[in-house]
Amino acid sequence: MKKDFTIFFLCIIIVILGFIVVDLRLQLDGNYTSIVLQTQKEKIVFAGDSITDGYDVNSYYQYDDKIIVNSGIGGYKTTNILSRFYNVIEQHNADKLFLLIGTNDLNNKGHDNVSEVVKNTEEILAKTKELSPQTKIYYQTIYPVIPSDKVGLRNNTDIRKINEQMRTYCEANGITYIDVYSVLADEDGNLNKDYTTDGLHLNSSGYDVVTSLLRPYVEE
């Protein structure tokens, strides 16, 4: 009698599991929101400082099959990203990462700013490759500035030096290097005044130009 009850109980469990499987299939066939479908979306993260923070990526990039995350934080330097790497980059487990960082480091008086930015940025990229190997990395060159008291110690000579050294690093390590500097610069190599609010940050026209350059990489 006990054996018959055990068999009956097992049959009930099998029937219930069968209904659950059928229900899950119906939900998927009916295009219901599900964890399975959500994980199929490509996750794209933009990381950096206030220039990224002010970039309304979810308005510029609207796709049904992509999740766009803005991980930019105003005032951030390369050292901030390194010390908060999990929060800024690692936790997102991104398929693609667009990194723009370094301009705030250049406002440090008494430092070898160029060497420090290059060293720290290389460390950020290497750490991303190590801890998030599935992530395809896109390095954006540091944007030009219009020299003035508003931009502090930042200058385009240092920015170009960093960008060229990072080009070499990216090419040697399989990282996509995107020369944003050139498309934002005027004939004198300064940030085009039509693209900025203060000689450092971009206005909507500046972000339009950046988006036109980045969109093919976002969509590839």
Top keywords for this entry?
single chain, 220 residues, alpha/beta, Rossmann fold, five-stranded parallel β-sheet, 49% helix
Whole-number average pLDDT?
A: 89
- Residue ranges: pLDDT <50 for 5 or more in a row? 19-38
Q: How many domains, in number, for the residues?
A: 2
The whole-angstrom Rg is 24 Å
Oligomer: single chain
Helical content class: 40-55%
State the CATH topology of the largest domain: Rossmann fold
Number of strands: 5
- Termini gap: 65 Å
Taken from the alpha-carbon principal axes, the silhouette is globular
Q: Can you list the strand order of the major beta sheet?
A: 2-1-3-4-5
Number of DSSP helical runs: 10
The fraction of residues assigned to DSSP E strands is 5-15%
Specify the biggest β-sheet.
5 strands, parallel
The succession of helices and strands, N to C, reads HHEHHEHHEHEHEHH
- SS class: alpha/beta
CATH class of the largest domain: Alpha Beta
CATH superfamily of the largest domain: SGNH hydrolase
CATH architecture of the largest domain: 3-Layer(aba) Sandwich
